[in-house]
């Protein structure tokens, strides 16, 4: 397969162009949405919202999709809002009619997560409305009913299951990151593209690491969230985290851990519950998990234990690891006892709104308290802003509060670091890498580091792209078209395999069949086997025409012999005579009419036209134009025939007819040795069942004599 970039091949067909255009997550983190087009196929990879923006500004640039109604496929990698938050809008508020796929676990959590997003967003707008007394200024992107309706358009896919939609083959592989997260390997016309979504190559307490697909992709579309950063070892990271929590509790403070409702929160709770069990002095300090959403989704976690790592699968045989001893769910803000030290995990993780933002505003002015940011923070969010330790922070109402509490950052984010990304690329060996889902600086650093690492690599020759939003990466793949011979056609080529036969032999062979193209596969089969190997049905069209004709059957037979040579009578009744002409055409004489019947195909149609023409010309009303062997020509023909046969076979060959050919007779008997040949003088045919070769010789003699004596 020949692969060329845009700058190398301006003269190639656009159908060979593969285009990758970020509609979101191009040199940014948030609203992941990638448009992939190739060979007339159109795929949308993820459709999320930007956590740092509001309303329609948070959406991907969906308007940039040309003819969005012709989209073939939508694939969602996981349930985080920046990857699926705009999906209901895409499915219900646009003209998209494509099928959408995600894993079973992602689909199960999707509904709860988006319903919580709608509720939190509405509560925030309602709060701001009460402050301004001017009506809610923004409308939600969609309502809870839209989420339920969108589920009807989403189909689940299992890990390692291969599906095909409109000629696009795709399969899902474990991506780590969160429960149900998948990377998708897509194949279009032999070109393989791997989209990683968010992925982690490091196993944690409950999730397996991302797997390496068994097929080498031509193109890798991968995240660049952490650029060239290297993560701490898991043990060191957990030790630092528990130490920070312990320090805040020891000084009498309250510890706030903003976390997404699902994913990293479960990982942090497993760590805290184990740490509390090992430290009896902390067991009087409550740990709250403030998320109704998590309670609903915990059943999902318990259902999909099989999608987790061996540690969890082995542990669940004895006890459920997600039934925590020292962590309780916080039903509402009113149930929180924060009169003394406590630990609260609250969503959302970037504190745009919700309980995590409310608790932060209540606690940030006390220096005993502390905030631990345990995941990646997008630019423009409150969580990202407080990492720079400003003297004051704004509240949702616009007031400024002094920031006196401690703010610490520990990355529990399940994204790959530079080392993991580089090793992943080295195992896959793609030709092209397209970086998405990363802030501009981090993305450029990663691209530069990868370029330096692989510039002298003789095995893996990388070309790296860092597109902005709505900026296309265009590659051209020009491959050969190969057709597979199926069915009886394949059997007729003999028992020798293609490997055992020289290519030069095949070049001299011809093959006749129907070339069938389905999506990007080509097959050659016989027309009769179309229903066997395709979804096509075959239809036989039988045509019948009736031509006025007032002549006799013998006149019709004569003219049929003139045009076809060989004519066979298959049925002779009192009111009809039926002939077979050209082995395919049925001609039936009836009083004042000739019926011509045949199975339609190009050859038979041509024969039928010729027969129709000769029948029209053979009408007695135009007899002046007809050649005839009647008196005197027929008498001359019979005399010449007798002489010719006696010269060829001896004077006794016509003894049955007295040594002459009678022009008034219809038949003539020819005796040659022990063979008897019956000659039809009207049809000018010979028949010898005992000796076919003799029959053929006599037939040829009769035809040549007739041709020599017939008037031109």
The whole-angstrom Rg is 43 Å
Oligomer: single chain
Principal-axis shape equals: rod-shaped
Most strands sheet: 8 strands, mixed
Protein name: Cleavage and polyadenylation specificity factor subunit 3
Subcellular location: Nucleus
GO molecular function: 5'-3' RNA exonuclease activity; RNA binding; RNA endonuclease activity
InterPro entries: Beta_Casp, CPSF73-100_C, MBL, Metallo-B-lactamas, RibonucZ/Hydroxyglut_hydro, RMMBL
Would you give an account of this structure?
This protein is an alpha/beta fold and 712 residues long. The protein folds into 5 domains: 292 residues, Metallo-beta-lactamase, Chain A, CATH 3.60.15; 176 residues, Rossmann fold; 50 residues, no CATH class; 84 residues, 2-Layer Sandwich (Double Stranded RNA Binding Domain), CATH 3.30.160.690; 77 residues, no CATH class. It contains 19 helices and 34 strands. An 8-stranded mixed sheet has the order 1-23-2-3-4-5-6-7. A hairpin with a 4-residue loop joins strand 33 and strand 34. Helix 2 packs across helix 4 and helix 18 packs antiparallel against helix 19. The radius of gyration is 43 Å and the shape is rod-shaped. About 3% of the residues have low confidence. It comes from Taenia asiatica. One of its GO terms (biological process) is mRNA 3'-end processing by stem-loop binding and cleavage. This is Cleavage and polyadenylation specificity factor subunit 3. Pfam families: Beta-Casp (PF10996), CPSF73-100_C (PF11718), Lactamase_B_6 (PF16661), RMMBL (PF07521).
């Amino acid at each position: 397969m020949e692969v060329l970039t845009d700058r190398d091949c301006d003269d190639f067909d656009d159908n060979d162009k593969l285009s990758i255009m970020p509609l979101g997550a191009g040199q940014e983190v948030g609203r992941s949405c990638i448009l992939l087009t190739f060979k007339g196929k159109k795929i949308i990879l993820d459709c999320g919202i930007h956590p740092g923006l509001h309303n329609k500004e948070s959406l991907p640039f969906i308007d940039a999709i040309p003819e969005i109604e012709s989209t073939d496929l939508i694939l969602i990698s996981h349930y985080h809002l920046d990857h699926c938050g705009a999906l209901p809008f895409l499915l219900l508020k646009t003209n998209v009619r494509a099928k959408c796929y995600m894993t079973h676990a992602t689909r199960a959590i999707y509904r709860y997560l988006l319903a919580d997003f709608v509720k939190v967003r509405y509560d925030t707008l309602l709060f701001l409305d009460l402050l301004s007394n001017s009506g809610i200024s923004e409308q939600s992107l969609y309502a809870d009913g839209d989420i339920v309706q969108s589920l009807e358009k989403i189909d689940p896919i299992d890990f390692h299951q291969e599906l095909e939609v409109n000629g696009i083959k795709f399969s899902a592989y474990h991506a780590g990151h969160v429960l149900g997260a998948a990377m998708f390997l897509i194949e279009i016309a032999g070109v393989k593209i791997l989209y990683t979504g968010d992925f982690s190559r490091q196993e944690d307490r409950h999730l397996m690491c991302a797997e390496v697909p068994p097929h080498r992709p031509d193109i890798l579309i991968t995240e660049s969230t952490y650029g060239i950063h290297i993560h701490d070892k898991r043990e060191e990271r957990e030790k630092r985290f528990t130490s920070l929590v312990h320090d805040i509790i020891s000084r009498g403070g309250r510890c706030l851990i903003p976390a997404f409702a699902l994913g990293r929160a479960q990982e942090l709770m497993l760590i805290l519950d184990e740490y509390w069990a090992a430290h009896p002095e902390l067991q009087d300090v409550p740990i709250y998990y403030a998320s109704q959403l998590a309670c609903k989704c915990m059943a999902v976690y318990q259902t999909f234990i099989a999608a987790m790592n061996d540690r969890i699968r082995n542990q669940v045989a004895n006890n459920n690891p997600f039934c925590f001893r020292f962590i309780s769910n916080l039903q509402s803000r009113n149930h929180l006892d924060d009169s003394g030290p406590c630990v609260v995990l609250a969503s959302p993780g970037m504190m745009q709104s919700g309980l995590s933002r409310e608790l932060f505003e209540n606690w940030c002015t006390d220096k005993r308290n502390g905030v631990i940011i345990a995941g990646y923070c997008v630019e423009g969010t409150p969580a990202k802003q407080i990492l720079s330790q400003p003297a004051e922070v704004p509240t949702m109402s616009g007031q400024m509060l002094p920031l006196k509490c401690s703010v610490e950052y520990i990355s529990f984010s399940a994204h790959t670091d530079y080392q993991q990304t580089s090793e992943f690329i080295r195992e896959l060996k793609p030709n092209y890498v397209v970086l998405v889902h990363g802030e501009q600086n981090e993305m450029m650093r990663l691209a530069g580091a990868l370029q330096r690492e692989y510039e002298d690599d003789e095995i893996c020759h990388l070309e790296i792209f860092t597109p902005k939003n709505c900026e296309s990466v265009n590659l051209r793949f020009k491959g050969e078209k190969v057709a597979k011979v199926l069915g009886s056609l394949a059997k007729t080529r003999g028992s020798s395999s293609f490997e055992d036969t020289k290519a030069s032999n095949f070049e001299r062979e011809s093959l006749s069949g129907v070339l069938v193209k389905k999506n990007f596969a080509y097959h050659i089969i016989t027309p009769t086997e179309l229903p066997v190997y395709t979804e096509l049905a075959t239809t036989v069209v039988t045509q019948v025409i009736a031509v006025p004709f007032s002549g006799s059957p013998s006149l019709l037979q004569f003219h049929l012999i003139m045009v076809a040579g060989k004519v066979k009578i298959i049925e002779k009744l009192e009111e009809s005579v039926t002939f077979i002409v050209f082995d395919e055409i049925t001609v039936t004489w009836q009083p004042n009419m000739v019926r011509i019947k045949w199975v339609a195909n190009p050859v038979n149609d041509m024969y039928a036209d010729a027969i129709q023409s000769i029948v029209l010309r053979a009408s007695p009303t135009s007899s002046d134009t007809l050649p005839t062997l009647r008196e005197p020509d027929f008498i001359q023909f019979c005399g010449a025939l007798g002489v010719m046969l006696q010269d060829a076979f001896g004077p006794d060959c016509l003894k049955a007819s007295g040594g002459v050919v009678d022009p008034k007779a219809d038949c003539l008997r020819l005796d040659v040795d022990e063979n008897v040949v019956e000659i039809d003088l009207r049809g000018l045919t010979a028949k010898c069942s005992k000796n076919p070769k003799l029959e053929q010789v006599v037939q040829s003699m009769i035809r040549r004599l007739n041709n020599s004596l017939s008037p031109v």
